[in-house]
Batch of 2 targets.
Target 1
Amino acid sequence: MSVAPRVAVTGVGLVCSVGRGFRRAFGLLCEGRRGVGPLTLFSGEGYPVRLAAEVPELELEPGGSRSEALALAAAGEALAQAGLAGGLPGRAELVVAASTGGMYETELTLSALHRDAGAPYDAAALRCHPISAPADRLHERFGPFRRVRTVCSACAGGAVALGLGAARVRAGEAEAVLAGGVDALSRLTFAGFSSLGSLDAEPCRPFDRSRRGLSLGEGAAFFVLEPLERARARGAAVLGELAGFAAACEAHHITQPEPEGATVGRVVSAALASAGLGPAAIGYVDAHGTGTPLNDATEAAALARVFAGVERGPLVSSQKGQIGHTLSAAGAVEAAVALAALVEQRVPPTGGLAEPEDHPPLRFVRGRGEAAPLDAVLSNSFGFGGSDASLVFAREGFAAPAPPPAPSALVVTGYATLGPAGLRRGEGGYGGRGGGPPGPAPDPKGWLDPARSRRLDRPALFAAALAEAALGEAALAPGERTGLVAGGAYGSPSSSSAFLSRVELKGPRFAPPAEFPNLVPSSPGAHAAIYNRLRGPSFTVSEGAATALAALSSAVDVLRDGQADAVVALAAEVESALVERVVAPACSVVGPGPRGEGGAAFVVETAEAAGRRGARARALLVGAEVWPGDAPSAPPWSARAASPARARVVTLYAERLGAAWLEAIGWAGVEVVEVGPRTGWHEAGLALAAAEAIALLEGGAADEVLVVERSARRAGLALLRRRP
Amino acid sequence: MSAPYVVEVKELLIRALDLQGRNAADIDEEAPLFGGGLGLDSLDALQIAMAVEEEFGVAIPEGEEAKSLFRNVASLAAYVAAKRVESA
């Protein structure tokens, strides 16, 4: 039995408003340098607050976005430091957290199209729009990576990306993972946070008695994570270990934190436990510390409870008073600062903090950085939808990371589909038994409790209803060990453009606050988790045409890493003329006929957990993976075991696969079932294909079914077998 | 007969907060808006403030003063009525 690899950090890159460079920016932060100043990226007219932490002198590539430029700079630094800029190992992966993508560069175009659908536009300029675009750009520049995935978990995204990357190293799947987060400012996010009254009119003051809100910022940070033994063998300098990680959903409210911070406490404790460390081992906590009255009070109270028993409480600081809240980058940027503290044995201050609230035993650092002996540090990040994440970094060899659980088979214990025929439970891909042409689904409002679903928009209603139906089918009562991974390819361009158009026409005062949280690409999944009280890790993935398979793939990773016993994996897309005519084609995603709408949700569990609760498996999920490019790079688990007559391939459009391609992956001569003519070509069609696969297995037509995606930029597979 | 703006404020709430299946007759103007009654939260308060300003041209102040205005439909309607008289 081999020991699970420990996760070494061999390179870090960082860009923020205060400066560039992992060590250089840290030095400036320790001097107390603040990078919150007047807005220059767009007009602040009509806004009560006109401050932001912009990254100065950022050079963009032609047709490229700020997000891409930030990511390229940070990733480049990390790879150079790790000595991998000249070439990546064969099993190198990329995971990027983002929530804005190319919004800044494209939002005015989309807003104009909202007002006039016939307005001329530059399609090439929209290519950088999706949140998955920065990851694709990193792959083009620094690849090839074997996996190129984007995650969105609002303001916890950067931490979640690091945690997921670490899981891939621990699973023995990756020789190196480039993991991090990026977000650039945009008019949309600025208008949104302004409408919530969240912005401080002065540069923000985390943990200060007179704090009034947050300052928005932009930035990026990337880490090179690799197995410690591999790093040592190739003589790489090890900055530290990513020793612990935990993430969970509060399932409380889409914007407000739980008043007592119970989940924050749970996540911090779980991260410590996963590192095999007690609270006393942590010398420094890099807090989420946004500067809002609620967050800081909740976080401090939760931390004070976790560290209550220690003799000398940890030093605590937040960088958001100096670099602003960098949204999806924050979890990674601040993890980088926490790691720098460990490397330099120096704790950075909380810029803007004059008079801290009292939360013994926490010791808030103000003014300048202070030297401190550190063995291990903790970094917190919390996001909209109550997504909480904590990371632990430790000196090489100091921690005792808990190994991932023994490998277990994974089973689907329940599933549901949604389409023109409505919400169906466990009845195959809704198009499987007849089913009409692609078209709109019925109004989802009637499927959910109106009192608890009032605020959900259509994508969120789809996700919440699908998750509820799948959980019902699986007879699973969700709790802390049930997570959710949602697939969402484009966020909500229609709603986002409507929101911004309103701001442009009527002014920032009339931006609808209740609509803004729904615009974050992770919101449909977050609403589904809140509605269904799922309190394990919850996040969204985005990977273009293969988004639905990416959701299954990441669900597998979460289960294999022991972060949950069950995960609801779902993908749903709603009809949108803007996506169908403009956004998807600009991203090279098109199909014959109508795009359609719909989706599917699956409850995936370890066979062990399912067995413990006496649940019936509907099918075995052998594996799910997506990779960039077209060439088959089929993983070993996808080899066909059944005879061709007892196997099936399910895909959107059979003509995209071709006999040669199927032969190359070992599935020649197998009947291909196509669902696209019934589902449409929206990105959740592959989730419906997976549902169809389960129906084929249960109906006895096949013993083994491969769900396949082959498109311009991605290939993907999910293999399901008849339950044992 | 209702006091001025009571019916209009009720209809505004239903539209602005998407209170499906409710009409003005369902809403008791004396019942607390928050914590029971309609069960609204702080995000709703922000949305209501924006909608009131858009519909009636009356700005809702921030902070403590807003809390008493938001007690119930009656208090909100009374504020709108008073401000409209002022600016008339």
Note: The first helix of chain A runs from residue 22 to 30.
Target 2
Amino acid sequence: MSKVYDLDDRNVFVVIGSGAGGGTLANELAQKGVDVVCLEAGSRLDMSDIVNDLNEMDKLVGWHDPREGSPTWLCKTVGGTTMRWSAVSLRFKNYEMKPLTTYGKVEGTSLIDWPISYEELAPFYTRAESKMGVSGTGDIPNSPETNNAKVLRAGGALAGYRDYSTANIAINPEARDGRPGCQQLAFCFSGCAIGAKWSTLYTEIPKAEETEHFELRPESMVVRINHDKSGQVTGVVYLDKNGNRQEQKARGVAVACNVVETTRLLLNSDSSLFPKGLGNSSDQVGRNYMKHQHSGVAAIMPGDVNAHRGARQTGLIFDEWKHDESRGFVSGYTIQAMFASPGMIAGAIGGWGDSFAEVISDYTKMAYSFASCEDLPEPGNRITLNDRKKDLNGLPVPVLAYTQHDNSKALEEHSIAAMTDIYKSLGGAKITRSYGNISTCHNMGTARMSEKPEDGVTNRWGQVHDIPNLFVSDGGLFPSSGAGNPTLTIVALAIRQAEYIASRMSQGTL
Amino acid sequence: MQRFIELLFPIGGVDTPSFSTVALAIIDNPDLSEPINNAVESLNSAASGSWLSTEGAAQTETMKAQETQPWFVTLFIMSRALLFDLPDVWSVLDYEGPSTEFGGYKYRGFDDIDWLPKVDP
């Protein structure tokens, strides 16, 4: 039974956001006996609310508060974007955590190395993989191979690609941890109707509630973080489900709202002591905004593929996931088989008229994949606030400024050529190439960890440099994006951060 | 509006009622009245009269010249989302739709592809 904490209870640790970072951190802390209040802007769904309908689910879980600039496709619901994600769970490579050392100074970028090494994070990756049930790790089998994945593997082999995997997916291949095995429902992006895919909604949150050290408050939109004269945070102000302002006192706060809302909250919590925003003496909050390049290729194959059947993304090619400047760019990319309903695929391939109709008409013969390409941080790619435009909650609308770096364009060209070769090697025709596809759901970097305070927002523990009892616990922590999907790293960092926070609390220093 | 959508997505087998369903949904959406008005004005102006009265190929050419206009992008994205959400269109594309009630695709062909060449593991 979930506990209920008093608003004036200064002993609680407040976690803002219940997704991959917030949900994990909250549960890990609660398991250690820390009293946690988790404030989530969205509502809490029941499993019975999850239907095989992307548009209907978007109405329930999508974040639709106004934003300007580069689009995002994120969630406002208990579970955050773990409701909608594809479940691809990849670790950073060693060199990706040392991008400045590895790539050197790349013009126009603000590259820094992570203040922690891969070796330090590795044990937490292992724990995250076990927590999430990542296929092909520990004693968990690989994921079953869908038709679309088989096309990628066969074409990849003919095109010279051999580093292929159906592992690294946080969807149960068989029943595990109280959740069923995958039934290949094919609606991963709508939320998993049976809970085979990992989401904090039905894993971390209920486990936290069982500890009796945790209270989840859905439909609670945090609008400000308060602090005292010394700069220590003292609590958070939120709008409850009736729109009334409440203040929850806190001994510490972790912000895990995904990068747009985390940035907005920190900037909007400015004060005379923090005139540029909370934790923003470095002027780095909101900057270094990274989104993976997601170039895509569709091809009509000689026979039926029926790629719409089965889990959305299984089948990964890793041969180009390396740093090899002879290709004309720094870093690399992963190739991932992906498919979706006709509406989503139509959006992915783009276009209209006869040429579009010719391709979409062969839907059952279509194969599709995309490349997740490392994005380099740039100081001008940033999230700011439009103080002249407010949303329904009276908050300034976020503005997402983002342009593609030349390195991303080079990665895009190379990856599109690679995927084209893969499909052509099998006789694929009517190739559709999608340029300029920037990920809307991988958002990173806006509160990045840094060794030197002037280079970032947080330290090696995700603790805000300026404020020792304020933490960030989402993808905003990443100093680099790597080429892999970010969620596993967010979870690993949250597990590690929880150990640090609990340890500091038991020592009486937090 | 219907003609506009038919030319955006001239998919063989998609029938008139599907296009008219989408057109009506768009026309009935008060948030789209401005782009619709802009569409009518821009297309007719580009056709020097009535866009609907021009030939099919000319209609498409006129649309092509307008495709970067904000009203075009808005109506294009909305039409696409609505059209590909229709079960009748799914039937044309052989898309099988929701699957949970059928136990997913685990036993209904998620991995049944049979024409791929054998490749070394």
Note: The longest helix of chain B spans residues 33-46.
